[in-house]
Amino acid sequence: MQHLLTTEFLERVEIESILDLAQGFDEVLDRDIPKVPPLRGLTVATLFFEPSTRTRLSFERAAKALSADVMSFSPSTSSLTKGESLKDTALTIQAMGADIMVVRHSAVGAPWRVAQWVDCPVVNAGDGAHQHPTQALLDALTLQQRFGKLDGLRVGIVGDIRHSRVARSNIYCLSTLGASVTLIAPPTLLPLDHSGWPCRVTHDLDEVLGDLDVVYLLRIQMERGGATVFPSLPEYVRRYGLTRNRFARLHPEAVVMHPGPMNRGVEIAPDVADDGRSLVLDQVRAGIAVRMAVLFRLGTGLAGSKP
Amino acid sequence: MTMVIRNGLVFTDHGMIQGDVVIEGSTVVSVGDPPPSDEGAFEIDARGGWVGPGLVDLHVHLREPGQEWKETIETGSRSAVAGGFTAIVAMPNTDPAIDSGHLARFVADRGRQAGLCTVVPSGTISMGRAGLHLSHLDDLWEAGARLFTDDGDTVADGGLLRNAMEYLAGRGGLIAQHAEDPGLARGGHMHEGSVSARLGMRGLPSAAEEVVVARDLALVRLTGCRYHVQHVSSAGTLELIRMAKAEGLPVTAEVAPHTITFDHEIVATMDPDFKMYPPLRTQDDIAALRRGLLDGTIDAVATDHAPHASAECEVPFEEAPRGVIGLETAVGAVLAAVDPTPEILFDRMSVRPARIAGLERQGRAVGEGTPANLVVIDPTASWVADTFQSRSTNSPWKGTNMSGRTLATIHEGQLVHQLART
Asked: In chain B, what is the straight-line distance between the N-terminal and C-terminal CA atoms, in Å?
């Protein structure tokens, strides 16, 4: 693996080997000194052109647990406002000695562009509404830890599919691992043409609710690109919110997931979020282990070549 | 001095004729017959080539005034003649926009100073292309503008467009529309379909173009104004044009070479050289538009030559500027896309666009007494599109092999471009 940019073309064996690695690192995190040395001497640069504290912290925590040094770049502390091109920014960070770049950007494809320009491995930490591969991998790890395997697992992803990189990453990752994915959203939150996607689609949450092992909720915003995509939040909650009533109708083993940050009272009822079958905090923890695995995989080849 | 174009296949009123074209001054003096005495004449070898009227491009962004780092009227003219164009219509979305006569005169003057091809100014429909008030239409007309457009943006206000149409209809002015409903296109970066779904990019549906053209056709019916659809991109728009023409409305249309070459799948490369508005659409659209160009429903090929500096394109696709260059690749692209007969090529790339723009010295079948605005095309020359005369290099054909190229361009009797034959 040269870069990690998308889950779309990841093979099952590749995903499984990352998850195995991550499971090992998860155990490291339980040690008295939760730190191992494999990336000592390497520098992981996080380039977050779109602000995101949690994902950045997770990557930085993962890098430090592998003994890498961390360098942070964000527009608020940079010269981006001076109109520097993405290419110049990427080459500048590379010249400062970055060995791995973690890139988040509000524009689709930005990490692909960076990967074309720099010599080091690039991790996509979220590009527009396109992909966020480590999110899907951490979700897969969370589910594997809970259910043992993903084969045959029935996962419903509910909410703003159209604008969600989390959904796009999970559709490919989870189905590659054998889960059957159903997208549940009003038509305005689904893409016009989703014919090529390995999943089924419905507009009716209540119709499929009882058949799901996993209800994966996405963060909801009413306004998208200056246009209203549904009439009101109460109307959305009425049809698509995971309320207490709906939660009660899930089968007893079913779990709830959310990539965060949650809108309590909108896509997820507050006490559902806090229920023991909500895996939200397990996802956060799995995120560190998965990102350690990804950085390890991309960085170990480099570590050997360092003088 | 006498110039002779030897042994080409010449586009004349009597069909394609094999022979020589003799030019004296800025006029063709004979076609077909061997010249009486050609001693001292300048000769151009056109063996295997097509000789016809210089190409006419209805849609070129020359970026001057205001964005000279992308292109100037001089570098754009050089690019045009390298592509075989002897007349180009300069779009008015410069900075400042060409909304007044003195600005149109500036464009024409700079074109004459460059001295390579005829640079025809067009005027905006609204002041500053803001869509609020009519631009100085009379003033622009006096300065030579015949085509009026807010290109880059749609005239969204139907009332304003109707007034512009009524104002210009009587004197034969032409309204050219960049059809893109602002609400439907909002935030869109590519065609809305299966690829935009996969990439998570906001899309511009074909409907964004079609609703504007449908409305405008109703206004043409109301006002009788000549109306031209710029860069048609969807099969649905093509059908609207077909119906309007059948009804007898004074409607014409153009298509860009990239539109009939690439489909939306290529956007997955994330390469901004494939970003343009209207966006690249589907194979079905491409097939329909190719048929439309061949059957004449689409009157003209227009490049929508839109230069952007390379640094501006070193950004993510969604943040990249819109548009690509196209003058130098147009002939090769059209030959590859629709494999036209020479008659069709010269009709769609010279005769009809010259008529639409009202250019009397352009687009004439080659014959005794016609203006010496000519092009020699080698329809089989193979070459690599790796360097450009344009100041910018944002070409979707960059680095690719092309077949078919301009060998020589003659503007008003002057040889303004000639390719060394190997």
From this structure: 26
